[in-house]
């Protein structure tokens, strides 16, 4: 921590707690305490950059307030001490009548939550101090513009007044003046608007707008604290998986003004393009404006490069500061700044949100520049971003009708029905419709609709507008600032050049990579990243684009770093070959029940209906060569790599016709006196096999124990297929997995039969087969008794889908449709336990079973084959508990490879959300 402490500020001694830090006291490593904004303001202050003086109220103060409903006892005195120090530094007092000190009160959580919490600017203005500001600045219009902004923001944010009422009054003032932008309103107009705004506050809030500047500040601080638990903030945290118990810091910063005339302004800058990752001058600037005008997108900005011709001195200084910050943070920086009459001030910096493509490009660029190493490069990208890059894109050869073009704010190819408000977007999405949310500009209240939509289209704003920033963070396709599109939200339609009207419900397509907007549905083609993984595009080739090259390099970093191997869940040779192209190091789950569908269902029916041992043996003999052929193809596709074959798992009734359909068929046949003996036998079998809860009934190892010959037929097919591949000079590495084992005795019984069959095949073929036998750990009892089960198992594969069901007592197919939505909305779940592993419950069993298995059998192989094997967060957990491999669907293999590398190279302190 910096020793450059303000002499006017005394440290709190109440219980040793300190709730307020001057900007000179903090640094960027104190994000947990000061929030991202406060920590970075302190860091910029330490770097000697032009930051307006101020102080930060810690997240601990917020958490105390939220827990108890009251601010910490010491907080008011600490704030008073820091305010006095700020006043001494600035030579003026908060809200004094002649030359008022004004401050902003801004939220600032550890993780960036753009627009989700509250900010109030111009605190300290009142009926008296606005006159002093007018006199001191020499600009009557500026003073009254600042005052109306305060009342508007304070009324909405602190007093809960409907923001639309202020907007309507502002629009009415512009209509009366016959102007379209607020900068055309004169001082007299704004003075009348202030009077109108105060009346709105009195009517809607039941109280006068506070004239005491300290009351304004205290109420604003509480409002920022409260906004942590606002609906939109909670929704955003759930979407971004940000913990709910962090709280927000509050930053009190002396105001600098961008709305003092044409030599003033405000802007947002990026050290690299957050959409593409390319180096250059990127950002937006708006003359004679305050910061919220840029972010809200209510006035269209000019590109940052134009600042050079507007104010060369400030532009050059800003470019130097941007270079300093990027080299200091060793990453893309997102910067907010204000120019006050030719004086540049830095209001915020943070590691900037970026698109998936930009993340990969920037990571490799920074490695090439020597700013970061390979391990850190892996922390700058995520599996979720890689998955985004694998989504399809629009077919450039398709016939299209382009109707507009805006700013390419967040890439992707989105097609959907146009909707013009958040409520409709959510409603239609829940009905299965794909929608594009179309707005003049978005605001934080649109978050529900933005999440529900396939993409977002606005007619105003730029790359730094609310829509752009939030869309990039969520990986949503977004086109902003399509000015030629006239969006009428009240009439629910959009007029495009040429007069064509897009009504709500009409299909449109938006390209977040080019900014183009099309009528109708544009067909899509595979992503070049998928083509690279499929082997149809080669990194380093002349026609390979730079994104593919960046992905190739990052994947090479990950493969060098990772200790977890990555296998595929694949049931046939075609899927296996694709998985191998995607980098699979074997098959971790071959579900043999999928091989019994289609034309083979009749053979399974005959097996189930068999009345005698001879009939059953006949059915098994018919299935054996078919199974063997399946395995020969599979072992050939994965030659030299392990293939884990799970013996038949699901309940047998799944291979029989639907009971209702079959009952109708039998009843109709009887009424018509038609032959129906076979259907009748089937119906009797269905009734015989019917179970109240089939997922906990006759399936898995239980089938092998009660239906003689079923598992031994499958083991023989595996062994004969392996022997055939060996005789053909292949290298089959088959592993036999027994499902749903709950006790070691079950495994021992099946294993004894399997070993006997394998020995018979070895003797008959003269081939030595090294087939390992293991089990799925998917029942709590199996996890608890894993030490015993390991005595008979050469490997464990954790079936985390069923383990999650049995640990939680959930029937997945039922609960996800019935109450999971409510659980997620209420915050009981941050994410579905079927999507990301429940570390405290299911994960604890996995960790304990892995430890117990290794204590019994040190060389036991441990893997996971549930859907969690391809989930980024879960992959990190499996690395931590020491598993040998994860297995997932072929499409998720690159994601799992990347996350395994990130898990192996992660270091404390890396935090690039």
UniProtKB/TrEMBL annotation:
Q: Name one Pfam family in it.
A: PEP-utilizers
- Locate the residues binding Mg(2+): 778, 802
Annotated EC: 2.7.9.1
What SUPFAM superfamilies does this protein map onto? Answer: Glutathione synthetase ATP-binding domain-like, Phosphoenolpyruvate/pyruvate domain, Phosphohistidine domain
Q: Where is the PEP-utilising enzyme C-terminal domain?
A: 549-901
Instruction: Output one GO MF annotation.
Output: pyruvate, phosphate dikinase activity
Pyruvate phosphate dikinase AMP/ATP-binding domain residues are 75-300, 306-357
Cofactor(s) in the UniProt record: Mg(2+)
Catalytic reaction(s) noted: pyruvate + phosphate + ATP = phosphoenolpyruvate + AMP + diphosphate + H(+)
Q: Which residues form the active site?
A: 466 (tele-phosphohistidine intermediate), 865 (proton donor)
According to the entry, every stretch annotated as the PEP-utilising enzyme mobile domain falls at: 433-515
What keywords are assigned to this protein?
Answer: ATP-binding, Kinase, Magnesium, Metal-binding, Nucleotide-binding, Pyruvate, Transferase
Concerning NCBIfam families, the annotation shows:
PRK05878.1, pyru_phos_dikin
Q: What's the protein name? A: Pyruvate, phosphate dikinase
Species for this entry: Streptomyces triticiradicis
Q: What is the lineage of its organism?
A: Bacteria, Bacillati, Actinomycetota, Actinomycetes, Kitasatosporales
